[in-house]
Amino acid sequence: MSNLSVVHLPQILKCYTSPKPITACSNGIPFSKPKSGGLAILEIPLDKIRRPLMRTRANDPEKVKELMESIRQIGLQEPIDVLEVDGIYYGFSGCHRFEAHQRLGLPTIRCKIRRGTKETLRHHMR
Ligand code: ADP
């Protein structure tokens, strides 16, 4: 009997030793950071968002005015979509909300961030 307990004790202890920290996914990326293609919601300074197509599409000034009034009263209800490629943020939509924030003098805007690759970026630029 005493032999048995000597043999089995290390096996029991192994069960309580986790080889990996439980705060990380299987690929080692913490849960708080989105994986490629994952989504995160962040407040981002307006001047950190590049808008490559800004000069090719005009906003409706009436829409912008209405949004300014609404955002002033109740805040931004729906974040804008932003693509993150190599740590740089790109905005292709949400143009009226973005301009409304600019005109209101707000320093940041709430963004729904999706990570992408240079290929994703090229696709958006087409
Ligand atoms: P944008 O170019 O910003 O997408 P749109 O006029 O096409 O402008 O759409 C306005 C969007 O802004 C809608 O999806 C609406 O749900 C969203 N939104 C977010 N916050 C507000 C707000 N406070 N008042 C009105 N619409 C808002």
The order of strands across the largest sheet is: 1-5-3-4-2
What does the oligomeric state look like here?
single chain
Overall mean confidence score, pLDDT: 77
SS element count, helices: 4
Looking at this protein, list some descriptive labels:
alpha/beta, five-stranded mixed sheet, disordered N terminus, binds adenosine-5'-diphosphate
Report on this model:
- This protein is an alpha/beta fold and 126 residues long.
- Strand 3 (80-85) and strand 4 form a beta hairpin.
- The protein has helices at residues 2-14, 61-74, 95-104, 118-125; strands at residues 39-45, 49-50, 80-85, 88-91, 108-115.
- Residues 1-33 have low confidence and may be disordered.
- It has a domain at 45-126: Conserved hypothetical protein from pyrococcus furiosus pfu- 392566-001, ParB domain (Alpha-Beta Complex).
- Helix 2 packs across helix 3.
- A five-stranded mixed beta sheet has the order 1-5-3-4-2.
- The termini are far apart.
- The site of adenosine-5'-diphosphate has 13 residues, from helix 2 and helix 3.
